Amino acid sequence: MTALECDDEIIVIDCGSSFPGGDMPGIDLVIPDVSYLIANREKVKGIVLTHGHEDHIGALPYVLKDLNVPVFGTKLTLALVDNKLREQKLDGISLNVVKPGSVISLGTKFKVEFVNVSHSIAGSCALAITTPIGLVFHTGDFKVDYTPIDGNVINLKRIAEIGGKGVTLLLAESTNVEREGSSMSEAKVGESIAHILNENQDRRIFIATFASNIHRLQQIVDLAKKFKRKVAFAGRSMINVVECATKIGELKLDSSCVVDIDMIDKEEDKKLIIITTGSQGEPMSALTRIAAGEFPKIQLGYNDTVIISASPIPGNEKMVYNVVNNIYQHGARAIYERLAEVHASGHACQDELKLIHALIKPKYFIPVHGERRHLQKHAELAVKMGTPANNIIIPDIGNRIEITGKTFRMGDNIPSGCLLVDGLGVGDVGSIVLRDRKHLSEEGLFVAAVGINSLSGEIFGIDITSKGFMYSDEESDAIIEEAKTVLKNALSQMDLKGAADWTQVKSVMRKELKNLFFKRTRRNPMVIPVILED
């Protein structure tokens, strides 16, 4: 998410979410903290979207609950947004469809032109924004593909014209800046899949890919028809996107070539292509469940070929290759990016980024969309392309960058950060809760309840329960009995009559048990002491 602010007007570019990291157990989604925008809601004139991927639209249902402003995007982008808003039962949001080439005015300070670009989802656009300090060009996510599946080539002519007018600020994505050369055309993926289908004509085919990659889905559907196969779709997000894209005409399906996933047992294996989610090895995705033998009506076997048409997102490699191993375990074949050209990145590599810098010729540059190493590398590339180093700022979340006709500098930071979505709760899970969850997941839980007669101070019972701590009943029983003895000995030395300091009593219980467990097991479970007064 990026915001442009001029006097009393603000426009927002994209509103995405991200998946939780491994240090966020139980968290469903991570969204941006928009408290600054909410505090200045009367200034916000609208949200403009570059495309419909989750990291650009995923936070909208949560943000729009508190910030009801108009949203602008292309047909597929807003169709996906509309689906998300319906799921959250969020009504009354103004969704405004624009076409590439359209120009809209937001307030009195901003005019936004949507410029067609290629990416791994249809309807992707860069933004040329006219502001009081000059033109701002935001690439969105893009690549330069001269043979796109839908024929809509990136509008380099218009980008060059915009650059010729003089661009004050360029914000450009940095995801693939470490890769030399240019990205592979999406059409090449279709050629590779066609070759695999030709080599596996007697086998059932599974293809896992991103649900949002409509162009890849279109190629697979067209190839299915060519090879006289039917397609079935597996995975909730895949089915939702296919329905959405078909409804608005972005995905063209021949209904006679489609079979419901629940009816595939009535089709010959060699007549089927099953298109599924799970290209990143997500635990509950369709492919992961299929590979684990947990998907209804589908059993992998020696007559199956599984194509993973994606490259693992950094951090997902282990999950993806666990799925690959499970596929092989069933006797099926697995084909993935290391073995064949079955995936093309949707992000620009170095030569494509250089082309944009050459066409735009910005006065100032801010690299966006990537980890710090990507942003740094992109800044270095920009210097080589002629942008002075002191005209480049690498931002952190919450940075305010001030631009005038003559200055380009860091300003005061704004309130920012991330909010964690956990079930129905948004932002109510903080670092302490995450720390406790991590502790529980790694070390287990030990609950010790002690019954005490507050008049006499007599202990009339100790009950101990553990979860995720000991692996054998014999071990568990032995340490529980020892824990009871330790508690009795420790508490017998304390005054438990009348108005005892129960906080102190619990502290002693916790300390004694932790010492025992570490001594016996070298483990540090979470210990919860409970006092039951009679």
The CATH superfamily of the largest domain is identified as: Ribonuclease Z/Hydroxyacylglutathione hydrolase-like
Spatial order of the strands in the main sheet?
A: 7-8-9-10-11-17
Through-space gap between termini:
57 Å
Using the coordinates shown, work out and report the CATH topology of the largest domain: Metallo-beta-lactamase, Chain A
Q: Compute the CA-based radius of gyration.
A: 29 Å
Q: Report the sheet-strand fraction.
A: 15-25%
**CATH top level assignment of the largest domain:** Alpha Beta
Helix content: 25-40%
The profile of the biggest β sheet is: 6 strands, mixed
Strand tally is 24
Q: What number is the mean pLDDT?
A: 90
* Low-confidence parts: none
Please tally the helical runs, counting DSSP H or I stretches of 4 or more residues: 15
Quickly give the structural class: alpha/beta
CATH second-level architecture of the largest domain: 4-Layer Sandwich
Describe the fold and architecture.
- The chain folds into four domains: 1-98 and 413-425, 4-Layer Sandwich (Metallo-beta-lactamase, Chain A); 100-183 and 345-411, Ribonuclease Z/Hydroxyacylglutathione hydrolase-like (Metallo-beta-lactamase, Chain A, 4-Layer Sandwich), CATH 3.60.15.10; 186-335, Metallo-hydrolase/oxidoreductase (Rossmann fold, 3-Layer(aba) Sandwich); 444-533, Ubiquitin-like (UB roll), CATH 3.10.20.580.
- The longest helix has 20 residues, at 502-521.
- Helix 8 links the parallel strand 13 (230-234) and strand 14 (272-276).
- With 534 residues, the chain is α/β, with parallel strands linked by helices.
- It has 15 helices and 24 strands.
- Helix content is 32%, strand content 23%.
- The strands form six sheets. A six-stranded mixed β-sheet has the order 7-8-9-10-11-17.
- The model has no long low-confidence stretch (mean pLDDT 90).
- Helix 4 (75-87) packs across helix 8 and helix 6 runs parallel beside helix 7.
